[in-house]
Amino acid sequence: MPVPFEAFIPMGLVVVMFGVTGTGFSLAKRLTNEGKPARHSVDDWDSMMMKRDERLTGTARGQATDPIAPKEFATNSVWGTEKVR
C-alpha cells in the first residue's frame, strides 16, 4: 500500500525541525566550550586539572604551555583562607 503524498509535508517538517534543534543544540554547546567539543566521562583527575587550568589561564577550557606558572598563581589558591589579624 503506497504512502499518500499528503504525509510527505508533515514528515518533512518533523525531520527538518529535529535537524534544526539538534544543530542549534550542538552549536550552543560548542559556543559554551570555546569552540571545542564537550567533555564526556570527566573523573576527579580531569576536574582537578580543569580547575587548575582555569586558575592558570582564566578560562574554563584554556590550557597553558608555559613551563613556569605566573607569579599570581602562588596566591590564587583553591583553598579558602581566613584573614590574619
Can you describe what's shown?
- With 85 residues, the protein is an all-alpha fold.
- The radius of gyration is 23 Å and the shape is rod-shaped.
- The protein contains 2 helices and no strands.
- The protein has 2 domains: 32 residues; 36 residues, no CATH class.
- The protein starts with 7 loop residues before the first helix and ends in a 28-residue tail after the last helix.
Structural class: mainly alpha
The average pLDDT value, as a whole number, equals 84
Q: Which regions have little confidence, pLDDT < 50, spanning 5+ residues?
A: none
- Summed up, the helix count is 2
- Tell me about the largest β-sheet: none
Distance between the termini: 86 Å
**Order of SSEs:** HH
Please tell me what the overall shape is: rod-shaped
Give the number of DSSP strands.
Answer: 0
Please estimate the helix content: 40-55%
The number of domains: 2
Rg, Å, rounded: 23 Å
β-strand percent reads under 5%
Q: What is the gist of this entry?
A:
This protein is mostly helical and 85 residues long. The chain has helices at 8-32, 44-57. It is found in: Mitochondrion inner membrane.
Q: Which SSEs are present, and which pair or pack?
A:
Elements: H1 8-32, H2 44-57
Keywords summarizing the entry:
single chain; 85 residues; mainly alpha; 2 domains
